[in-house]
Amino acid sequence: MGTYSGGVSHPDHGAGLPSKGDPSAATQVSEPSSFRTDARSRRRRMLPVAATGLVAVVGTLYLRAVDPNVPGHYPGCPSQTFLGVDCPGCGGMRGTYDLLHGDVAGMLDHNILLVVALPVAVIAFIVWAFRAWMGRYPRYSPSVQAQRSRWMVIALVLVLVFGVVRNLVPYLGSGAG
User: What pTM does this model have?
Assistant: First the structure.
C-alpha cells in the first residue's frame, strides 16, 4: 500500500512508491505499456517476414507464368478430386491467376471469396511487417482476446457456410470438374 502526499494509504498504489509530494517522484515506475517490446534485433525480427514475403512473391510469379487451368502443373483439390465438391478455397488459384492477368470477372467466376481473402491477407502481412520492424506488439487484455476469438470463429463459420452454399448454387461453383 502506497501513500498519497497527505499520508492517506490507497490500495491501488504499490508499497514503497514515492508519494506525489515527494521530490523523488520523478523516478516513480510508470504504468505498464499497452505494447510489449521484442528484444531481438531488427534483423532477427524481420527474417520470418522477409522469408514469407519472398515465398509469396516467388509463388505469385510462378502462378503468373504457369496457367492452373492446364492440367498437370498443380495438384488437384482433394475435396474436388475425392468427393466431387468444391471446398471454400476451390478456384482460388485459378482466380488469382486470372487476377494477375487483369481478368477480374474471371477471378470472381472462379472464387468470389477472393474479393475478401486477398485484401485481408495483404493487410495482415503489412501489419505483421510493420510490427516486426518496430519491435512493438500490442498487449491484449483477456476481454480483447476473447472478442478477437469470437471474430475468428464468426469468420470461420462464414467461410464454411460459403463452402456449403457454393455447392448448392450453380453460379458460385469454382468451374472445376
Answer: 0.73
